[in-house]
């Protein structure tokens, strides 16, 4: 049985959705870490690789993913696929910095990020720098506290970016206009 449309049997028009392939073209990717694990069996050594990848469009979209495989390129491909699935939007003020100071914690890794004046640049190390740059933040100060595991530092940086709230978002939560704050 066919379902009838209410619009005189005209086919419904669908809005074109952004496919994953189109999104991949827009997002840059950067490999944060590649790890090698060796399993020794009586037949010899078996190597497996893990990869952590950050993707972003430098305009507020960023995601992190990890992947494991028997070959490095396959691990990077899996990590990239996971990162594309986990893309989130982050708040950026004036197209260059973050709205306020924030701390992100994952495991024992903790990352503190602070807004900076124009022209400061990205003052961050390692994995935090990759996440901030691909998110599109141009002026920020960051400090990694606690553990320095690359995966956890990257995730903690993303957590700190996710916790950012713009004045417009706060005004909406309070039911006021931005000028009233």
SSE blueprint:
Layout: H1 20-26, E1 28-41, E2 44-56, E3 61-69, H2 72-85, E4 88-89, E5 102-106, E6 109-115, E7 122-123, H3 126-135, E8 140-146, H4 150-162, H5 167-174
Helix pairs in contact: 3-4
Please tell me about this protein's structure:
The chain has 181 residues and is an alpha+beta fold. The protein is 29% helix and 33% strand. The protein contains five helices and eight strands; from the N terminus they run H-E-E-E-H-E-E-E-E-H-E-H-H. It has helices at 20-26, 72-85, 126-135, 150-162, 167-174; strands at 28-41, 44-56, 61-69, 88-89, 102-106, 109-115, 122-123, 140-146. The chain has a four-stranded antiparallel beta sheet with strand order 1-2-3-4. It is elongated. The chain starts with 19 loop residues before the first helix and ends in a 7-residue tail after the last helix.
Brief description of this entry?
With 181 residues, the protein is of the alpha+beta class.
What do the pLDDT scores average to? 87
**How many extended strands?**
8
Structural class: alpha+beta
Share of helical residues: 25-40%
Largest sheet: 4 strands, antiparallel
Order of helices and strands: HEEEHEEEEHEHH
């Amino acid at each position: 049985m066919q379902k009838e449309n209410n619009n005189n049997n005209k086919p419904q028009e669908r809005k074109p959705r952004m496919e994953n392939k189109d999104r991949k073209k827009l997002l840059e990717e950067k490999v944060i870490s590649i790890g090698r694990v060796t399993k020794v069996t009586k037949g010899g050594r078996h190597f497996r690789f893990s990869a952590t990848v950050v993707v972003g469009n430098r305009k507020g979209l960023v995601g992190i993913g990890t992947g494991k495989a028997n070959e490095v390129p396959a691990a990077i491909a899996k990590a990239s696929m996971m990162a594309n699935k986990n893309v989130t939007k982050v708040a950026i003020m004036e197209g260059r910095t973050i709205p306020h100071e924030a701390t992100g914690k994952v495991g024992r890794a903790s990352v503190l990020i602070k807004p900076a004046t124009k022209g400061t640049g990205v003052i961050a190390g390692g994995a935090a720098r990759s996440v901030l740059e691909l998110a599109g933040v141009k002026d920020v100060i960051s400090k990694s506290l606690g553990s320095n595991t690359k995966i956890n530092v990257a995730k903690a940086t993303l957590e700190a970016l996710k916790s950012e709230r713009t004045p417009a978002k706060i005004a909406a939560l309070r039911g006021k206009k931005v000028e009233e704050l």
